[in-house]
Structures are given as structure tokens and as C-alpha cells.
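SRPBCC family protein, pasting as requested.
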Amino acid sequence: MPQVQVHVSIPLPVDEVFYFLADGRNLPRWHSGVTEISPDGPEEPDESALAERRAYKYRFPGRHRSFRLECCAYEHNVSVGYLGQRMWTPLGSQMPRFDFRVWPQGTGCRVGVQVTSWLAGGMVMMWPVVSLGWRRDLPEDVQRLYQVLTGTEEGADIGYEAGPVAVAARPRRRAVRGLRAPAMHG
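C-alpha cells follow.
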């Protein structure tokens, strides 16, 4: 299914950038795949300790209802991933996953941003269009991430990777309730 990756260099420490990415409430500030977000359930007193189990209600662009977004992968100061609930359309469904990796680079860090969309039904025929949309939007998203974190309008050092050509593996469901992974046909 469509998978797009980009990287951006940010002149800030790894822990500061990771803390920002691990809080899903920051996604609408820079990511075009999330227009609005709110915690799904009560806020916990120690937010950093529970980041790996956090769930949100979010709105995907063009959608009128909220969907569930859960943290599905978490390694402190290294990576965090969010898996979105399956969204139905008349053509089929799609289920997005947003993954972020952070690693040291010089005095700052490098951030890898990846979007994977699992498509089902007639949406499978639309994968080139979905892929083109993310290829267009993701570099602009990481530019906004750079600007939000640094507070500057200057251009960021952005690298682009197309991602693997093969169909990505189904999402790993780690205590993710209410989300169904799409069936893999083939």
C-alpha cells in the first residue's frame, strides 16, 4: 500500500523533538493528515509515562466525524507511531499510520516521518492517487514541523525517500482496541 517517507534536520536536541512528536495533540500544528485532535478519555497526571498507551479522537482532512488514533509503537527518544481507525468511503476504506523516528545528527537531530495507508475495496485502485497526495504533502508537513519547532521561516534540510515498493505489512496491533487491520488479499 502507499508508503511515503521524508527526513528533516532540526537544530534541536533529540529529547526535545521526541517529546513534541510523542504528544499527539501537536499533530494538527504541522501535519496535514490531522485537522483536529483531542484526548480519547481522561488525561493522566503523568503524561510522559503514558505516551505509549495514549489514544486520541482526530479528524482526517475532508471528514466530518472523528476517528480513533492510537499510539501503536513507542521507543523513548527513538520512535513513535500512531495508527488511525479504518475510514470508510463509497469506494472502500483506508487506514493511515503515521510513524516518526528521531536520531542524533551533529548538534541537532534528524527526524524521519513516514505515512502508510492500508487500502481496501475499490480504494486499492486509487493507491497511485493516495501516494501522489502524500508525496506532495509530506515535504511541506516536515517544513512546517521545522518552522514550529525552531520558530523560524527559513527552509529546512529535507530528504525524500520513496519507501519500499512492496506492500507494507499489516499494522501491528499492540493492545489496540476498536481498530481492525484490513485483510490482506493476494
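Note for the archive: Confidence is low (pLDDT under 50) at residues 162-168.
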